[in-house]
Design a protein that fits this description.
The protein is built from eight helices and no strands. The chain has one domain. The chain starts with a helix and ends with a helix. It is mainly alpha-helical. Helix 1 packs antiparallel against helix 8, helix 4 runs antiparallel to helix 5 and helix 5 runs antiparallel to helix 7.
Length: 168
């Protein structure tokens, strides 16, 4: 999922640079709606395979998918605000879809999800005020930078876990 988010938010930022706001809004709506599906597709190549039938289901998988559903439900906040102020979209969607990182921290018992959610909220709000004319560019790239940092930390964590398991 982090890789999927990185790809989609990069595309949103590029759209913010190249397209008028009206088209960028659609890229943001469609792109963020596709993050979970792209993540499921990519998981086939990363060894996670969310939809694979060979691995046993566990409560953490269910919790993860519930947090994805929670993130999608937040569009009920983002859309009405967007209807009043279109440039609110990167703010609301950027923060609200980042909330799922909090329960992920609990699932994986690691600080990175909490760091990602809190940093994302603070930086996105700050950018929304500081760069009012560049909200569709700066906010996506802040989110991309956080994804890069988060992926690096998760990859290091994975390697440590793997080396520990091989040592046993």
């Amino acid at each position: 999922m982090p890789l999927s988010g990185l790809i989609i938010w990069t595309l949103i930022g590029i759209a913010g640079v190249l397209l008028p706001a009206r088209q960028t809004v659609w890229v943001l709506f469609i792109g963020t709606g596709l993050i979970v599906y792209l993540g499921m597709f990519l998981s086939r190549f990363t060894g996670e395979n969310f939809l694979g039938r060979s691995k046993p289901k566990n409560p953490f998988d269910t919790l993860f998918f519930l947090t994805v559903g929670m993130s999608l439900l937040v569009f009920a906040i983002a859309i009405p605000f967007f209807m009043i102020e279109y440039s609110s979209l990167p703010l609301t969607v950027g923060i609200l879809t980042g909330l799922m990182w909090m329960p992920l921290s609990w699932i994986i018992q690691h600080w990175i999800g909490i760091f990602h959610s809190i940093s994302r909220t603070i930086l996105v709000v700050g950018a929304w005020y500081v760069y009012p004319e560049k909200r569709f560019v700066v906010i996506p790239f802040i989110i991309v930078a956080l994804y890069v940092f988060t992926i690096v930390i998760l990859e290091r964590r994975w390697k440590i876990i793997q080396s520990y398991q091989h040592a046993i």
